[in-house]
Amino acid sequence: MVKVLDFDEYSEDEEWSPPRRHLPPPPISRTKTLFLDLDRTLIHAYGGKPPIDYPYHFIVNVPTNERKKHLYYVTKRPGMDEFLRGAAELFEVVIFTAANEPYASRIVDKLDPEGRLISHRLYRDSCLPGRRGGFVKDLSGLGRDLKDVLIVDDKPQSYSLQKANGIPVAPFNGTNRDDRQLWWVAAILEKAITFDDVRNAVALYLAEKGDLDAANCNGPTIWNPRHVVASRTQEN
Ligand SMILES: [Mg+2]
Fold this sequence. Notes:
Blueprint: E1 33-36, E2 43-47, E3 58-63, E4 69-76, H1 80-90, E5 92-96, H2 101-111, E6 120-122, E7 128-129, E8 135-136, E9 149-153, E10 166-168, H3 181-192, H4 198-207, H5 209-216, H6 225-235
Parallel strand pairs: 1-5, 1-9, 5-6, 9-10
Antiparallel strand pairs: 2-4, 3-4, 7-8
Helix pairs in contact: 1-3, 3-5
The structure holds magnesium ion (MG).
Residues 8, 37, 39-41, 153-155 line the site of magnesium ion.
């Protein structure tokens, strides 16, 4: 049984301050922005010592308030490295997580060690408190037109203020090596980059989810290089 860590839950006794939300303008070459959730969307983190056969990729050591450190055993979702590389070719990629910075920043450092794929990071202090607990990631007021913004998150509540911009994924539990959710998301993103309003692409391709599953989610490669090259050519 995998221990479940839910960093998206808001506790009532937590101190709250207005969200910290500073993002510079997106790069001209990649005017569309992809916000990616972290926990259970790109990775799964197991707190403490996992079972001996737990398939983790790396460990992060996170300091706690009591001057102790806590180990997290982190598993990348299948296809994650390729997904991030492909996404960064097409989009400005921003990690938007409800987790705290000391924990999340150490994981993102491992996912993008050279800092070339992920342009910015937004942590818990950039989220709004949800009405029934949890966190909401408000995509407005970030200096990006909502027609150019997508978010991928395993919790629809996270993008409840801009539902049309959200691509849902099933939560990754750390052990399912047959998981193909990122293949499916990549197929949507390849199409969305060609739309003037990405929300139309989301609506269209969510309606065709079954077809996408069948057509695009079973191959060994997440991204179709032809799409990426075509996109680059359009930009230049
Ligand atoms: Mg999540």
